[in-house]
Amino acid sequence: MRKRPIFITGIGTGIGKTIVSAILVQKLKADYWKPIQSGDLDNSDTDHVRSLVTNNTTTFHPESYRLTQPFSPHKSAAIDGIYIDPQKIVLPDTNNQLIIEGAGGLMVPLNDNFLMIDLIKKLDAEVILVSKNYLGSINHTLMSDGILKSNGIKLSRLIFSGDHDHDSEGIIRKYLQIESIHIPYFNVLNADSISAFTEKMIW
User: Fold this and answer.
1) Which of 22, 24, 154, 172 could, after both became Cys, cross-link 49 (CB 3.0–4.6 A)?
2) Catalytic residue list
3) Handedness of CA 4, 157, 37, 140 (dihedral sign)
4) What angle do CA 65, 6, 172 make, to 5 degrees?
5) pLDDT tens digits, one per residue of 123-142
6) DSSP letter at 42?
7) How many CB atoms lie within 10 A of CB 150?
8) How many domains does the chain have?
9) Where does the chain have alpha helices with state H?
10) Handedness of CA 74, 91, 52, 17 (dihedral sign)
């Protein structure tokens, strides 16, 4: 029976979704898929995750869309003369657990009528939200959860990325009442440090 895919989204961009994806791929020996890559095609998120994963089980599935510009998918696609058709974004054929990494946050547009959260619903994925402590992150985290709820999507787990802020994390946990873990900054980020972290990580 096919396992329900896990969709990694964040409260914004530059939050740590790719590192979190690599950790979960390594920990769960899961497959990895980034449906839409915007910019950095020579050093894509798929390439980055691949460089951090050492298990022999993971398959890295090709992107549905590879866009040349580092902007929101709808803008990058327009510059490239491409229309992102959600019907062409189809789950890879695998019986393994699949980690899907989104682009930006929940309300990022793929085209004029389709948002990242619509893609989550289309793929019927379980959602993990990545948060990062900065001024405004409480608001962004709680709003992201509210958007998920308003779309009938239950948040599966919350991951804090980077430095601890016990006050911020405490109030977020109070309101979300959901299981959460913390993934710190890595002084040295490579396959060995990811592997060592996942060996100690409880999931």
Assistant:
1) 22
2) 34
3) positive
4) 115
5) 999 999 999 999 999 999 99
6) G
7) 9
8) 1
9) 17-28, 45-52, 73-80, 116-123, 137-150, 166-176, 191-200
10) positive
